[in-house]
Amino acid sequence: MTTLAGTSPPILHDAEALTDDALRDLFAYPADLAAPLFRANFIASIDGAVTLEGSGRKLGTPTDRRVFGRLREVADVVLVGATTACSKPYADIRMSAEAQAWRLSRGLAATLPVAVVSSRGVVPPAVLGNVTVPPVVLVAANADAAARRVLDESEARVIELPGDRIGSAAIRNALGELGLYRVLVEGGPTLFSQFVSDNEIDELCLTTSPKLVAGPARRIAAADGHVEINMQRRGILAGGDGTVIVRWARY
Predict the structure, then answer these.
(1) Percent of the chain scoring above 90 in pLDDT
(2) Over the stretch 118-142, which tens digit does the pLDDT of each residue have?
(3) Is-contact 45 209, C-beta < 8 A?
(4) Is the per-residue pLDDT at 1 higher than 90?
(5) How far apart are CA 66 and CA 130, in angstroms?
(6) pLDDT tens-digit map of 42-58
(7) What is the tens place of the pLDDT at every residue in 193-227?
(8) What pLDDT is attached to residue 4?
(9) Which residues of 161-191 are buried (b: 16+ CB within 10 A; e: fewer)?
(10) Between helices 62-73 and 97-105, what is the axis angle to 10°?
(11) What pLDDT sits at residue 57?
(12) For residues 160 and 179, what is the distance between their CA atoms, to the nearest angstrom?
């Protein structure tokens, strides 16, 4: 895990008062990282539901969508599980000219790759077919042979990790060896729950959508037993649409 220094009180920011570059600066990762920092990004209703009628997008707001884009633009890599990678947005994450300029001015690559965790080696063809920004695929050594052949024939950067289950520490080490330190974990809940259970999550940007939804929706993290990771607020962003986004960091 990556421990961050500093205990200054969080500042409440007005989202509408900040430019996109100001938002990028606000959510930028520390400049002196020597190991991967795992920052997760999730949205939940006021009562803790992670989906509305089965979709997280239905909880979204204009403020959340705007910050979602900025969080990607300050990362080295977007990390997702294989199921989440089936979502269309992961086929090609585009960067605006403005975002590319910000990234290049701070030593980041102009493009943003996706890293997919798949023990079985099954990755959506649309993701594998991205030749402009080939994905990173973290696959278990005992992955399905046919799926592995598909990976090896693609443009993906395939990293084989030992065993049947890909552990959280192994994911961190693999991304670190690739020099991908600014890691944005976009899920899904299964992968995030694994990181929490393994005590390997560093930050959480949690959007509270101004909705009460009740129903059977799950939480953003679930585990067989209780897990306790002490965190503190590092920033609060409020939108005029009722959205509240808090960046939490472990200490």
Answers:
(1) 74
(2) 999 999 999 999 988 999 999 999 9
(3) yes
(4) no
(5) 24
(6) 999 999 888 888 777 88
(7) 999 999 999 999 999 999 999 888 888 888 777 88
(8) 47
(9) beeeebebebbbebbeebebbbbbbbbbbeb
(10) 40
(11) 84
(12) 17
Q: Which CATH class is domain 12-250?
A: alpha beta
- Amino acid symbol at 206: L
In this prediction the pTM is 0.92
Q: Tokens 């920092």 correspond to what residue?
A: 37
Q: Which residue is associated with the tokens 């278990």? A: 140
Residue position matching structure tokens 């199921």: 83
Neighbours of 51 (CB within 10 A): 19
Question: Both tokens of residue 220?
Answer: 């953003």
Residue 129, token pair as written in the block: 């077919």
Q: Which residues pair with 184 in a beta bridge?
A: 39, 78
d(CA 89, CA 81): 14
User: Starting from the edge strand earliest in sequence, which strands make up the sheet with 231-238, in order?
Assistant: 12-14, 231-238, 244-250, 203-209, 37-45, 182-187, 77-81, 114-118, 136-140, 157-161
N- to C-terminal Cα separation, the chain = 11
Give the phi and the psi of residue 197 in degrees, each rounded to 5. -60, -35
